Amino acid sequence: MKAPSRSSSTPTKRSSKQRSPIRADAWIKSRVLQELKALADPKARAQLAYFGVDVPKAYGISAPILHKFARHIGKDQKLAEELWASGIHEARILAALLGEPGKVTPAQMERWVKGFDSWDVVDTACCYLYAEAKPAWKKAIEWSRRKKEFEKRASFALVAYLSYKDKLAPDSRFVQFLRVIEREAWDERNFVRKAVNWALRNIGKRNLRLNREAIRAAERIRQQGSRAARWIAADALRELKSEAVQARLR
User: Fold this and answer.
1) With contact defined as beta carbons under 8 Å apart, do 187 and 229 qualify?
2) What pTM did the predictor assign?
């Protein structure tokens, strides 16, 4: 059977027409990479550095286009693994969107975390794949001690997402992670300290009890004295003590 043409199956930046669904088995790695290359935007590629993304292999494709493309393809863990192996920036973001959380293993998470080289790949994987994977909490704790910037960011970004995605996690898990946040609040690296702050704020917005615990943790962090700790604490306390957050939690 002749495969559907690109014009009838792939979301592109050149047309706003509604695309009809295609067979899931029509998508293979080579075809997806060909489609990504066709979607490349030199202007978007040139802007990556402005947004703090410095990667060697990238086409320049906006997040909305990648999300639309992922919806056309559908979940496919095997294809996700193949796309990740390509090393292309947008292919790795797409892989995170296509992955199946129920099929994620600790070994797979370790393979991917070693390839994290930008905040947007980290955050996409943590939000759309790892936050619903069974090993999420264990890996968040493990990665918090990593030396590489984006591996360490993954720990705190993952907990930031778990704070509102994991509806069944007991408060004790988040209280435990507040100790991790306190321990690592010294890290000056931009993408780490921002993720540490993000996790602290999100934990503190989960419920009233955790709000009180997060505020106490932030007060202790402020006393650490480092520049990173002072910024993390001040920014978190500003939001967690705000009337808007307090009113919503009450």
Assistant:
1) no
2) 0.87
